[in-house]
Design a protein that fits this description.
- The structure is a single chain.
- The chain is an alpha/beta fold and 217 residues long.
- The protein folds into two domains: 128 residues, Response regulator (Rossmann fold, 3-Layer(aba) Sandwich), CATH 3.40.50; 76 residues, Arc Repressor Mutant, subunit A (Orthogonal Bundle).
- 55% of the residues lie in helices and 14% in strands.
- It contains eleven helices and six strands.
- The protein has a six-stranded parallel sheet, sandwiched between helices.
- Helix 4 links the parallel strand 4 and strand 5.
- The chain is globular and about 50 Å long.
Length: 217
């Protein structure tokens, strides 16, 4: 199936390069371009892409607020582009429900692979920083005692299999990798992931990984 992508990036030269790479990839269609966050949200509502490739620092509406709107309205998956300063923008995008984070220095093959990964329902964090983002995020924003108790109560609603899957999400494994570990069909794993995210009121697999690390801390 064709992956329909909306590219949101305020630097025209960078945006043109991203569009060029994606348009050359088999099975990927660029359905729109936006130079600011407000336009990105408007186009997401209009075009309903499978994925929004979102810069975090944009005029009018930054990528964090735009991500929050896109995810809250279930318009598309969001793959965030960043220079990766590990600042409040990146942390904000994670809280907003971004499904993945990608460095702007990524090469063409890495960009296309990331788009395919996130569009397929997996989360992705640039291998250059691996899970450092999640670890630092959890350390910088430790859950309060009341929040931890609430999280523990929510975890009690998970089935044993869903708890297993959650643990693997905390390790950053993909659906295919989890399926191999548990000897399950990948579609079955996707169902478990969807159900556990709903029970825990989480918007993305990356948020699930943060929760695992907070509870381990």
């Amino acid at each position: 199936m064709t992956i329909r992508v909306l590219v949101a990036e305020d630097q025209s030269a960078v945006r043109a390069g991203l569009v060029l790479i994606l348009r050359a990839a088999p099975g990927v269609e660029v359905v729109g371009e936006a130079g600011d966050g407000e336009r990105a949200v408007a186009l997401a509502r209009e075009l309903r892409p499978d994925l929004v490739l979102m810069d975090v620092r944009m005029p009018l509406l930054d990528g964090v607020a735009a991500t929050r709107a896109v995810v809250a309205e279930r318009l598309a998956q969001v793959l965030v582009l960043t220079t990766f300063d590990l600042d409040e923008y990146v942390f904000g995008a994670l809280r907003a429900g971004a499904a993945g984070f990608l460095l702007k220095t990524v090469d063409a093959a890495g960009l296309v692979a990331a788009v395919r990964t996130v569009a397929a329902g997996d989360s992705l964090i640039s291998p250059d920083v691996a899970w450092r983002l999640i670890n630092e995020f959890a350390a910088a924003r430790p859950a309060a005692r009341a929040e931890r108790l609430a999280d523990a109560a929510a975890l009690a609603s998970l089935t044993p299999r869903e708890r297993e899957v959650l643990g693997y999400l905390g390790e950053g494994l993909s659906n295919a990798e989890i399926a191999a570990r548990l000897r399950l069909a990948e579609t079955t794993v996707k169902t478990h992931v969807s159900r556990l995210l709903g029970k825990l009121d989480l918007r993305s697999r990356a948020q699930a990984a943060v929760l695992v690390r907070e509870l381990e801390g």
